[in-house]
Amino acid sequence: MKIQSKLWCLTLVLTSSISMAQQGVFAEKSYSKEVQKLSKKSMISKAFDRIKALEEETLRHHIELTEIAAPPFMEQQRAASFSDRLQTVGVDSIWTDSVGNVIGLIRGSKGDQTVALNAHLDTVFPEGTDVSVRVSNDTLYAPGIGDDTRGLAILITVAEVIRELEIKPKSDVLLVASVGEEGLGDLRGVKELFSERGPKIDSWIAIDGGSIGRVNTKALGSYRYKLTFEGPGGHSWGAFGLANPHHALGSAIYHFVGLADAYTSEGPKTSYNVGVIEGGTSINSVPFSSSMLIDIRSVEPYRLDEMEQLLDQSMRQALEEQNSIRRRGEALTATLEKIGNRPSGALDPGLPLIQRAIAATELFGVAAELTRGSTDSNIPISMGIPAITIGRGGTGGKAHSLDEWWFDEKGYQAVQYALLVLLAEAGI
Fold first, then answer.
1. Is residue 203 domain-shared with residue 234, that is, in the same domain?
2. How much helix, strand and coil, in percent to the nearest 5, is found in the chain?
3. Residues 205, 231: one domain?
4. Any bridge partners for residue 94, and if so which?
5. Does residue 205 contact residue 255 with C-beta atoms inside 8 Å?
6. Which tens digit of pLDDT belongs to each residue from 300-338?
7. What's the CATH code of the domain at 227?
8. I need a labelling partner for 111 at 20 to 30 A (CA). Which of 138, 168, 325, 348 fits?
9. Same domain? 56 vs 200
10. Which among 163, 51, 55, 146 is positioned nearest to 418, based on CA atoms?
11. Which of 48, 179, 65, 155 is nearest to 105 (CA)?
């Protein structure tokens, strides 16, 4: 076993030298040596072997949790199942906070710092979606099969291996299944965790999309809005001449797209999207309400504020136009409500957590890539707290679609990687 472990480490280090040279992303030598030394400990070799042996069990948790629906704001049933599984593998304590996050604690030998390992409970799919897992040629198909149920399964296996092999981290470890990562959840789970009411967290490691090598260190910020026009409504013939909320909404979209297209054609990358339009009761009724949901994203916070001004300008122009041509009835009103705020931010790549994550990828022969994304890590990153998002591993695609798929291509390596990064940061 010892000879095999040494050969494994040597092979990974040699392979990684080629990969990293091609990519040009290196960990500082001190961190590379630190993580290599950690990986050579017999305890880590045993843990890696045990993770591979538990591959079928990890997959069972993965499939069973996927088949428990977790629509936005309705994560409770999946949360309860995750809590039960974490309780079964063994943690020092487990609780659910006021917003629904499930938190398991593994006490450290010193406990002067706290490192969190996270995956999110919710999916983007609405209530009633068929989440049955279909297997075809060893590929798993189901809404949410990758995003982020695989991450939850990784958390359970990491906890099981730590407890079974009696690995004692120096820092306290929190295993966090969070709510509200997707859609209009607005990161409410992580916002609660990093509020004054939450536990003290010194380092944060989220597991989400991508493979080993993805080290997300930059937060992609977004603002989300609900724009609503309201009026008296009436019969399309008998009340003709009333100001029409739908007509105003269409005008607002037209004006906003024109302004936003010009603004986003240059400068730091910024995006916009009208994703949902709602309102009206029938084809022959003047609607009394018309609304849309808008998502705006940018790598720079000030760009979000300027896009907000363009949206407000477009709303006011459309309101004025529609009211000016009405022939009867009350004027329309308009409201612009901010319903989501995911802050931007970026961390220094020299932070120990980031360096350790990069160094750990070297041991798997993978080139590290520092990325930007919108994940649960947005909150701690924006606060300057060491935080990364790493990949869930395997191979997958069509996330956020009914045809989402995931293939267990050496999926156990992502579990090994998550454990290695966690213990490198927490110490043993």
1. no
2. 40, 25, 35
3. no
4. 104
5. no
6. 999 999 999 999 999 999 999 999 999 999 999 999 999
7. 3.30.70.360
8. 348
9. yes
10. 51
11. 155
